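User:
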Amino acid sequence: MHELWRICKKNAIIEIIVPYYNNKSAVSDMQHKHFFSDSTFSVFVDEGAVINKKGKFKIDFMELVPTNVGKFLPKKLREKLSLFIGGVISYVHVKIKIIK
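Assistant: Predicted structure:
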């Protein structure tokens, strides 16, 4: 992410689409590159985050895209259930803005 910040122009948008994983403890550590959830990207925008020392980012857009089963549930219920059971959210779609 530091390299992306370095090479991007001011106000550039980085669009990321990754599979969703519902284990909150695993996603807080960025060394686990195959675990992603809605909280994964907060480490890039938090002022005190270690990973945010060189560049500044802002989450412009974030969507938790439901699976076919998840589409039948209301959005609020779907997001709460995704914390406890799998198969409700398919992937995370996020757009991160470069702040220089």
